[in-house]
Write a structure and sequence with these properties.
Low-confidence stretches: none
Number of strands: 0
Helix content: over 70%
Number of helices: 6
Structural class: mainly alpha
Radius of gyration: 17 Å
Shape: globular
Order of helices and strands: HHHHHH
Distance between the termini: 5 Å
Length: 123
């Protein structure tokens, strides 16, 4: 773990930065103005839950998990950027996105698992 010596007060910085990175990475996925406006509510709701749930806690574990989850989704957005770009091109041309095949779902979930474990180990 690269950050095992960080106190909980400093984990808030990582949680905020990872929440902002999540919104920036996922923003192109939102296809309507309403969805783009509601998108920041995802990490904001997680942050509010953290504040309410960790009041008085001396451990940073909830913030570590929040940061790890946000970073995992950012990494997945980067890894699958070319696939998502193709899907959004279909939407912009007026067609529907292609449904995921079983193999594509297996690749996604396998990648998700590997990335999540790697992020948790590194953090």
């Amino acid at each position: 773990m690269l950050t095992r010596t960080l106190p909980p007060e400093q984990w808030w910085i990582g949680a905020v930065i990872s929440g902002v990175a999540f919104v920036v990475a996922i923003h192109p996925i939102a296809t309507t103005t309403k969805k783009k406006l509601l998108l920041p509510l995802i990490p904001l709701a997680g942050g509010i839950y953290l504040i309410l749930g960790t009041a008085g806690d001396k451990d940073a574990y909830p913030m570590v998990w929040f940061t790890a989850i946000m970073v995992t989704f950012v990494m997945l957005r980067i890894i699958f950027a070319s696939y998502l770009r193709r899907q959004f091109a279909l939407v912009h041309s007026g067609q529907q996105m292609e449904a995921l095949t079983g193999r594509q779902q297996a690749v996604f979930w396998g990648t998700f698992l590997i990335v999540a474990i790697a992020v948790i180990i590194v953090i």
